[in-house]
Amino acid sequence: MVHKMSVTIDKYSGFCWGVVRTVEIAEESLELDDTVYVLGHIIHNPKEIQRLQEKGLQTITIDDFPRIANEAKQQGLQPKVLIRAHGEPPETYRKALELGIEIIDATCPVVTKLQERVRKFYDQGYQIVIFGKSDHAEVLGVRGVCNDQCIVVSTVEDTISKVQLDKKTVLFSQTTMDRPTFLLIKEALQSRIKDLIVDSMEGIATEFHAKDTICGQVSGREDMLRKYAADHEAIVFVAGKASSNGKVLYDVCREVNPNTYFIEDISEINPSWFKGISKIGITGATSTPQWYMNHVQEHLSNLVTV
């Protein structure tokens, strides 16, 4: 029997407010100038990157700074470089100033606050531990504010093997990491530091603080996402493959609903996934544009299965 499928989009999915703000700043800047540069991909979604490129947004690296500064100087112009939501280390701002590049700072305020807190504890002599991915753009910015004098961990095992337990320590998190793992790392670190204090024969005073800097909009979505995934027979999770937040939220969906499929592009959809299924949900990362999820919905609504 041939049947149509009910296809809905998760109303809580799509851009977080930090990404909305960054994209809006980019679009406003492009209305004033034909060309605006962005340092690294503006978000981890190739569809949105392509849309903004067509408006004149050009992606560069910091190695391109001298070239664009020179080209602009020859034309009597000042190049404009947008700092994306992930933020940048202080060195980036220094290089821009030296070369006469105007910075359009679209760093997410949540990330800015994280950088300020890390700098504060670093200046007070704390050992900085960051739960995150060492090469992630946001973590690179955070590493920069403490002169890379920090320890980046991704698992409890990492933490135990890398952290010095005889130093006053503060634990932070990349804003898009998962809270359950953060709490496990916090507990493991606290228990070992307490053991050290008890067992120490030298009276070493060890101080530990854990700062939960995971974005509330990311962690708050998890419970709603679990309910949404459970309410549908199959889930199509739409996100860029490079999205850290996308990987976290996809795993949340898949834990609840094994019929969860990760796609970056509509061409990856396999109609056989939905054989005998009538109720499909579409959701995505905080970097997934609404317009592309609408596109996926239209595509799925036109499928028929036997």
Number of strands: 12
Lateral strand order in the biggest sheet? 1-12-10-11
User: What's the total helix number?
Assistant: 12
When the domains are counted, the total is 3
**Named CATH architecture of the largest domain:** 3-Layer(aba) Sandwich
Shape: flat
SSE string: EHEHEHEHEHEHEHEHEHHEHEEH
Look at the structure and name the CATH superfamily of the largest domain. 4-hydroxy-3-methylbut-2-enyl diphosphate reductase, catalytic domain
Question: Strand-residue fraction?
Answer: 15-25%
Present the secondary structure layout.
Elements lengths: L5 E4 L7 H16 L3 E4 L6 H8 L3 E4 L4 H10 L5 E4 L6 H10 L2 E4 L3 H15 L3 E5 L5 H9 L4 E4 L2 H7 L6 E5 L5 H21 L8 E3 L5 H4 L1 H10 L3 E5 L5 H13 L3 E4 L15 E6 L5 H12 L5
Parallel strand pairs: 1-12, 2-3, 2-4, 4-5, 6-7, 6-8, 8-9, 10-11, 10-12
What does this molecule look like?
This protein is α/β, with parallel strands linked by helices and 306 residues long. The protein has three domains: 6-14 and 219-301, Cobalt-precorrin-4 Transmethylase, domain 1; 17-107, Rossmann fold, CATH 3.40.50; 110-214, 4-hydroxy-3-methylbut-2-enyl diphosphate reductase, catalytic domain (Cobalt-precorrin-4 Transmethylase, domain 1), CATH 3.40.1010. Helices cover 44% and strands 17% of the residues. It has twelve helices and twelve strands. It has helices spanning 17-32, 46-53, 65-74, 90-99, 109-123, 137-145, 156-162, 179-199, 216-219, 221-230, 244-256, 290-301, and strands at residues 6-9, 36-39, 57-60, 80-83, 102-105, 127-131, 150-153, 169-173, 208-210, 234-238, 260-263, 279-284. The strands form three sheets. The protein has a four-stranded parallel β-sheet, sandwiched between helices. Strands 3-2-4-5 form a four-stranded parallel β-sheet, with helices on both faces. Strands 7-6-8-9 form a four-stranded parallel β-sheet, sandwiched between helices. The longest helix is centred in the middle third of the chain and has 21 residues, at 179-199.
